[in-house]
Specification:
Layout: E1 2-6, H1 13-24, E2 28-32, E3 37-40, E4 47-50, E5 53-54, E6 60-63, H2 70-82, E7 86-87, H3 91-98, H4 100-109, E8 117-118, H5 126-132, E9 138-142, E10 151-154, H6 157-169, E11 174-178, E12 186-193, E13 196-204, E14 219-222, H7 227-240, E15 244-252, E16 255-262, H8 268-274, H9 278-289
Parallel strand pairs: 1-2, 1-6, 6-7
Antiparallel strand pairs: 3-4, 4-5, 8-11, 9-10, 9-11, 12-13, 12-15, 13-14, 15-16
Helix pairs in contact: 1-9, 2-3
Length: 301
């Protein structure tokens, strides 16, 4: 197979591991910088160009699209889909999962456990919004934030009001969530491929920090997950429409609560913590499913 790997940096661990795994299994791989692609959008023969060349002959595409380039990245991915190339994660599913508010609404509609989440537009609603999620301490999140950036723990009602007012004053879109104290600054990252959790790790925040992201200095370790956590992770990925996903779960007194579903999960932390060849499993999933024009969502939102 000829595989396109959409990534802005071929030296990233996840990108290089996927290239390595694909070559080991006998496939040809081309790493393509999304922002250097340009498109010919026509009904009869949609085209995609890169560095002056016409991109043709691909059987599958692996999107590793960063949050900052979601709009253009998913446009490029849609063009591959229009050309009949099989995507391991579809453009509609990626767009759906990147919208934090929409993704939570979709998960809530299907009965997935979530932290109590509030969303408002007017500063007049702040006191009731804080009360709605159980009061302080609470977590305030920028909807556009990634890797723990734009996530604030407000330990008192006064601090919460000040931070929310500040964000609203900047016209930033935020959501407010209950703080799950019993999680102890830890979450579980479940790596879902197809309909299975193939690897799981516990991410623990460093002392004095509540965000467990590895980019924020958190540590990763092997963890045994419960059948309920496994089922929750698989269902969450399926609701988003993702074939490959990192599902972040908090352990609470009310069972597993989904924090986020990530469409481009990093591979370094989970491969090092579990010793599993996750990159190889992703290529196996492509080998099993890649067929021309196999796009389930058919452009639906």
């Amino acid at each position: 197979m000829k595989i396109a790997l959409l990534s802005r940096n071929p030296k990233l661990y996840s990108t290089s591991r996927l290239v390595e795994a694909a070559i080991e299994k006998g496939h040809e791989v081309q790493v393509i910088d999304i922002l250097k692609c340009y498109m010919n959008i026509t009904s009869n023969k949609p085209g995609l160009h890169y560095d002056g060349d016409n991109l043709t002959g691909f059987d599958a595409v692996i999107p590793r699209i960063g949050a900052s380039v979601t709009f253009y990245g998913t446009a490029v991915l849609r063009q591959f889909e229009m050309m009949g190339v099989y995507p391991i994660n579809e453009s509609v599913a990626i767009t759906r999962s990147r919208d934090k508010l929409r993704s939570l609404q979709l998960l809530a509609r299907k009965g997935i456990g979530l932290p109590i989440t509030g969303f408002a537009n007017s500063p007049d609603d702040i006191p009731d919004l804080i009360k709605m999620v159980g009061g302080a301490p609470l977590v305030i999140k920028l909807l556009e934030g990634t890797q723990g950036i734009g996530v604030v723990l407000a330990e008192t009602k006064k601090a919460a009001e000040s931070v929310i007012e500040a964000f609203m004053g900047l016209n930033a879109n935020i959501m407010v969530q209950e703080y799950i104290k019993e999680a102890g600054g830890a979450d579980i990252r479940c790596l879902v491929i197809g309909k299975k959790v193939v690897a799981a790790m516990k991410r623990q925040a460093q002392e004095g920090e509540f965000r467990s992201n590895l980019h924020r200095g958190g540590s990763a370790s092997l963890v045994k997950i419960t059948p309920e956590e496994r089922k929750t992770a698989v269902r969450a990925a399926s609701i988003m429409g993702l074939n490959v996903a990192g599902v972040d779960i908090l352990r609470s007194e009310n069972g597993p609560l989904v924090m986020e579903v990530n469409s481009s999960p990093g591979l370094r932390g989970i491969e090092e913590a579990t010793g599993k060849d996750v990159a190889g499993m992703i290529i196996d999933e492509i080998q099993k499913n890649a067929k021309p024009h196999k796009t389930r969502t058919k452009g639906k939102g």
